[in-house]
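input
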Amino acid sequence: MEIFNTGSETLNYSIKVKDDWIKLSSTQGAIQYEEKIYVSVDWQKAPKNQAAGTFIISGAGRDYTLEVSIRPDLPSCAGFIENNGVVSIEAARFDRAIDNNGIQWITLPNMGRTGSAVTMEPANAERQAPGENAPSLEYTFTLFDTGRVKVGAYLSPTLNYKKNEGLKYAIAIDDEEPQIVNMHEGETQPDWEYPQWWNVSVTDHIKIKETAHKISNPGQHTLKIWMVDPGVVFQKFVINAGGLKQSYLGPPESKYIKPAE
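output
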């Protein structure tokens, strides 16, 4: 954490730790501009189950209480790891790509707003049905709790060149039945009339399509994406397990641990 002095005089601060398992690099000082303080955990003294401790920062006549949460009983982790109820995955960081039927996945460097994008070629490939050997991508990730989650697919705003049909892809977690998603669903007003969906897609260079899924067990899971139509460009996937905050670019990519082979 960082303590900032927003005044013109020296800021004197002190920190009172309520739990002895919370360790700080400094508990008092005088600041002209700012100071960075490192927070760590003494795991020999820390509770063995999920817990939260606090410490209080005092200075300039005010007190601020901060919380330190720990969870020692986590399942084994692999892939992209949940943090505060969110898993964020750049589309180009897949663990496995299946090419088939003359169709292959390609990476488009710097195509995404926060990384590279992926799509399939040839661009005039026939529509595919999702299945075991169909062209697909797989991403390993870890969630710490069960329940309902939502997956936001961040797509480049490809034009609806199939007219009323729209461009489609399929998505599932683990062995779920694949959900077919139409990235142009509901866009009935033509783009040359500059409807709201068109203006947002062009100015943001993104289109987010959301699907709902159920997680029955904590731990390692696999996000699966299938090609249905060519022309769909994937930039990013965000799994919201209840902690997603509003932001323009979406959360930064989650920590990654290579799965065991």
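quick obs: The helical segments are 196-204.
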